[in-house]
Design goal:
There is one protein chain. This protein is an alpha/beta fold. The protein has a single domain, classed as TIM Barrel. Helix content is about 35%, strand content about 10%. The strands form 2 sheets. The chain has an 8-stranded parallel β-sheet, with helices on both faces. Helix 12 links the parallel strand 8 and strand 9. Helix 5 packs parallel to helix 6. The chain is globular, with a radius of gyration of 20 Å.
Length: about 375
């Protein structure tokens, strides 16, 4: 089974070549703070070097020949992703964007502004197919709203990226109201990306020991973010707001949404803002990235996703390049019904982000 047509990739990770490249965009005070004294840089939070550089989660073939880290070389991105997959648009989502959740809120604010400025200057001018996401400090929602307003008029920033739930609340909570309001006012969707979490918090049952233990459970937080947005009445307060979940998987979505539908009649009294079934809210306001493409046997996939009507309108292709578990259209085209191809690989994302796109070059083929 093949797909012949244009591709929009809603999750590609880019970064800076060295920590100094990001630090150079910080105000003088923070540059001096990070430089530290004669003993080296001051600590920020445990493990905080990840907020400056990528770590070891990438495909081996994505390391540039000059020794740079994956996600830092546009030419390699062009050769490995844009050209062979005939990609029409990509969303650049940083190396996950942990700057957004730093415990030091003023530093998080400065880091997010630096990351956005770096993207605007170093990446977006390289190719019209590259689109930016506004990284915001979730530890400082009012500052996040100011960052959104600062970039909202930039035609190449097409959404708002939320990563770490720095205040310990799911992203539908009222504590993030300044972000919700700013997103609705400027007409940009929010995207919630899988991430690490603030120190000391892990999965629902407690902290984990193994990647093998953690990886299958990443979807837990995605479930919470989705239910929080729905049960808080977020989309009733902001009818134009749109949200996308990135890298949380998707096979769990029909089950969770249908359980919300079933529970609503008995529990509606505590949620008076909700005036529609959760499944109707999701259909109108929420979309989901395809990566990681959940391992469901092909024969059972249609049955699993059929638990939520119109799922072919909700799923958007994402590669997660350059990470080790990245997905390619070849694989996904072989797993989903052919009637879904055009929607999943292109049309759903084009409508969600209001892209004005052209037809794909002749001969774009994915699948086998």
């Amino acid at each position: 089974m093949v797909y012949e047509g244009p591709v929009i990739d809603v999750d590609v990770h880019h970064s800076w070549r060295t920590s100094d490249e990001l630090i150079d965009y910080l105000p003088a005070f923070w540059r001096e703070h990070l430089a530290g004294g004669p003993d080296g840089p001051l600590p920020i939070v445990p493990g905080s070097r990840r907020v400056l550089m990528v770590d070891g989660s990438n495909r081996m073939d994505t390391f540039p020949e000059d020794g740079s880290l994956p996600g830092t070389d546009f030419e390699l991105l062009r050769r490995q992703l844009l050209e062979p997959l005939r990609v029409e648009k990509v969303l650049l989502n940083y190396e996950v964007g942990l700057q957004s959740g730093m415990a030091n809120a003023p530093l998080a604010t400065a880091m997010c502004r630096a990351a956005n400025e770096y993207t605007a200057e170093h990446w977006l001018p390289l190719d019209e197919r590259l689109c930016g996401m506004i990284l915001v400090p979730t530890s400082a929602p009012e500052e996040a709203a100011r960052e959104i307003a600062h970039w909202a008029a930039h035609e190449r920033f097409v959404g708002i990226l939320l990563v770490v739930d720095a205040l310990g609340r799911p992203f539908g909570h009222q504590v993030y109201a300044p972000i919700h309001r700013a997103a609705a006012e400027c007409g940009l969707p929010i995207a919630i990306h899988l991430s690490g979490r603030p120190e000391g918090r892990d999965m629902a049952g407690g902290n984990l020991s193994l990647m093998l233990e953690r990886y299958p459970l990443y979807c837990q937080a995605g479930m919470h973010h989705l239910t929080s947005m729905i049960t808080s009445g977020l989309f009733e307060r902001y009818p134009s707001l749109r949200a996308m979940l990135l890298e949380w998987g998707f096979s769990w979505i029909p089950s969770v949404v249908r359980r919300l539908d079933a529970a609503l009649p008995a529990l509606r009294r505590e949620t008076p803002e909700i005036r529609r079934l959760p499944s109707e809210v999701v259909a109108e306001h929420v979309r989901f990235a395809s990566q990681p493409f959940d391992y469901v046997p092909s024969a059972a996939l249609a049955g699993v996703l059929g638990g939520l009507d119109g799922f072919d309108d909700l799923l958007c292709f994402s590669s997660d390049y350059p990470h080790w578990d990245a997905d390619e259209p070849t694989y996904i085209a072989s797993r989903i019904p052919k009637s879904w191809h055009r929607k999943v690989f292109h049309d759903n994302a084009a409508r969600f982000f209001n892209f004005k796109v052209s037809s794909a070059p002749a001969g774009a083929t994915h699948g086998g």
